[in-house]
Amino acid sequence: MIFEIDLNKPIFFLWGGLFANNQDHLWRHKITEHSENFEVIIAVKNNLTLNINGEDHLIKENDFFLVPPNATIKPALTIDYELSFYWFHFMASYKLITHDDEKLQTGIQDIASLKSPTNLNNSVLLPRNFSLTYPERITVLINQLLNNEKIYQYTQRSNDFYLTLLLIAICDDYLKYLSQNAKNKVKKTALIAEWIRVNISSELNLLTIADHFGLNPNYLSRLFKKEQGLGVKEYILKIKLDYAKRLLTTTTLSINEISEQSFFYDSKHFMRLFKQKNGVTPSQYREENSHTNLNSSMMDPSSPLPKQLGNEALKQLLFEIMKDNHE
Fold it and tell me: Can you identify the CATH homologous superfamily of domain 2-182+297-324?
């Protein structure tokens, strides 16, 4: 089953954070009963097994997992190893569809044939579980959302819009995965883009890629730009910088270490390109995007109703939205 969320109706961020367990501590997920809200879990380090509505589910590293509304979560086993995962709750209007849904199938064909906008322009489609193809991109957006939540602003509604952008990115990852198997025209460079991501290195460039696939470099450059929206060199740089952003917000590695692990040939070159593309230095980016709710086996935060939902009229609106799901 797939949850289709209507982008034309309000989507509300509730709370979220990054859970981290040290291998020296034992941890079991507490028994939790959800109300009318979703919970997203994205495994960052190692695998997690949870019992949801009486059934055990394995959430692998870099997996997206969606816990549906009104679910009961219980521990499936005791964790005695290093583990980390992002989690966040939200409310939205939705309906259930199947993989055979005509609208979904048409949308997949639209994506495969490069049509824009697609038939799915006003929807976010989320399965219960799938492996993220581009976890670095999703990690960056999660950290931006969680960081924004900690910043004092006159309104908390910005959290909802960061969340919407994040859900769209997750859906985009999922739909592009589905479109790779579409029967219609598929991007010729889809395989090349994925090969670049998997084989990224400091030596990778247009010539080595063209040689690997037996293509003329100029032809590859034009085709890649047309189908992927950016050149090969820009695409390689984007992958490296996205990975660097993930390391900046999820590790305590030094800038030099991050530069090396992100396949830049020296840290000064890395810092110059990072600021050029992001408007801030790597250190500034780390500072601005690391203020998340961190919980661990020794500290489990409560889940208060956000202040933005404290108004009785808004509570009634939420009730009406959720009520529509069951009529």
Answer: Regulatory protein AraC (2.60.120.280)
